[in-house]
Amino acid sequence: MPRLSDTTRALRRQHILTSAFGCFSRDGFHVTSMDDIIAATGMSSSAVYRYFRSKEDIIRACAEQGIANVRQIFVALLDRDPCPDPAETLTLIVDELHKRTEYPEYDMTRLALQTWAEALRDAVLHHRARQLYVDTLEHITELARRWRDNGYLPADADTEAVAAAVFSIMHGIVVMHHLVEDIPAHTLRTGIALLGAATRTPPPETTL
């Protein structure tokens, strides 16, 4: 049997993961069986096991790819010239997350919800997810530094605090999408602006 090229191996591995995305998006990590994934790939079981030893390995690989894709949102923003301002960034984040719900066979944001829960159970996944999320936060912090340097934030702005807020908002959008209702980008911008004004202003003095 001829040896597969690295490109072919990479494509087959990705095909397995994409097939698993569909299974996990529909039925969840734990209801989905290895047999379900193998059937979805259209490959033989021996071919699938050549790339992944177990369903747990596939779960970890799917989760890592999902988080890496989120990180890529901010890598792409940092590559833009000029750098998008905070309002534009919020709109782009909303748009990018919505795109992840529109694949015909799967919804990456459904996998995100499952990944967060699975990371609490699986120490290996927790460690890897944390590394990827910390790296994502570093990219968002760099974006906040550029906002500061471009005058969108005060010169003494705590860019790590800004990054933590953006990171938290991004994941809140996913929860709202699945459990409450979608938040339009303009509503999100309005709410953040109002909240920002409120948290900057000292509370009114009360008279006795």
What descriptive keywords fit this protein?
208 residues; mainly alpha
Strand content: under 5%
For the sheet with most strands, the description reads: none
What CATH first level of the domain at 56-200 would be assigned? Mainly Alpha
Q: Element order, helices and strands?
A: HHHHHHHHH
Question: What global shape is seen?
Answer: elongated
- The CATH topology name of the domain at 56-200 reads Tetracycline Repressor, domain 2
How much helicity do the residues have? over 70%
Arithmetic mean of pLDDT: 93
Distance between the terminal alpha carbons, to the nearest Å? 88 Å
Which parts are unreliable, with pLDDT below 50 for 5 consecutive residues or more? none
How would you classify the quaternary structure? single chain
SS elements, strand count: 0
Task: Explain how this protein is built.
74% of the residues lie in helices and 0% in strands. It starts with 5 loop residues before the first helix and ends in an 8-residue tail after the last helix. It has helices spanning 6-27, 34-41, 45-51, 55-79, 86-99, 108-121, 123-149, 159-179, 185-200. The longest helix is centred in the middle third of the chain and has 27 residues, at 123-149. It has a domain at 56-200: Tetracycline Repressor, domain 2 (Orthogonal Bundle). The chain is built from nine helices and no strands. The protein is mainly α and 208 residues long.
